[in-house]
Amino acid sequence: MTDTILETAGMTREFSGFIAVDDVSLRVRTGTIHALIGPNGAGKTTFFNLLTNFLTPTRGTIKFKGEDITGMKPAMVARRGLVRSFQISAVFPHLTALENVRLALQRARGASFDFWRPEAALNVYNDRALELLHDVGLPDLGHAIVADLPYGQKRALELATTLALDPEMMLLDEPTAGMGHGDVDTIVQLIKRIRKGRTILMVEHNLSVVEGLCDTITVLTRGKILAEGDYATVSKNPEVIAAYLGTADA
């Protein structure tokens, strides 16, 4: 039995009487890829924001590697090895790809962002930054300005900056959103490569991506868990078909 790396108990978030996440208890096993799916408005992104404490739960608890992280500041959560990406690409468009990854690597220097140090002092991070760019399929784009990169490569770069934080667990919020078929395939292969030694929890609308990648799937609807299991089990669940697979969002 694989150990649990992330666990929530009774996770609930209310907004002025509206319950966006309703008593969600979730367990993610170490070393797996776990998907969170559901129609628009099901509470998936809100749940991600709760896991990383960008939102405070109305009630409920979060444990990461057995430690209660409920209410902990997002930066502290990241330092413990739980790091997330966002639906909107979170990179610096007017810097190079190398500079973006190097900024993430500067975490090793603590709170300092080295504003008053010569740029040469940061060259110590160049080799590792180039390795990460290679890992995400951007080996020759270190000096490319990010604003000039196509969308799929920007998403790959964001994964490189996430990997620079050396996470034990990655939360990926719709990593293939807005991509064409070719870019989707690239990101799927990338996720397969970077999963070694890590756990991944991902929100994803593309069901072919979920089917090909994920060990476990949790279906949310109206803020509640509707079903859970592997793809074969979940995709045949009549309630899931009615709530999600049969909708236009599927």
Structure description:
- This protein has 250 residues and is of the alpha/beta class.
- It folds into two domains: 1-81 and 167-250, P-loop containing nucleotide triphosphate hydrolases (Rossmann fold); 92-166, no CATH class.
- The chain is built from nine helices and eleven strands.
- The protein has helices at residues 44-51, 74-79, 97-105, 126-135, 151-163, 181-194, 207-213, 231-235, 238-245; strands at residues 4-15, 18-24, 27-29, 33-37, 59-64, 67-68, 82-84, 169-173, 199-203, 216-221, 224-229.
- The strands form two sheets. A six-stranded mixed sheet has the order 7-8-9-4-10-11, sandwiched between helices.
- Strand 10 (216-221) and strand 11 form a beta hairpin.
- The mean pLDDT is 86.
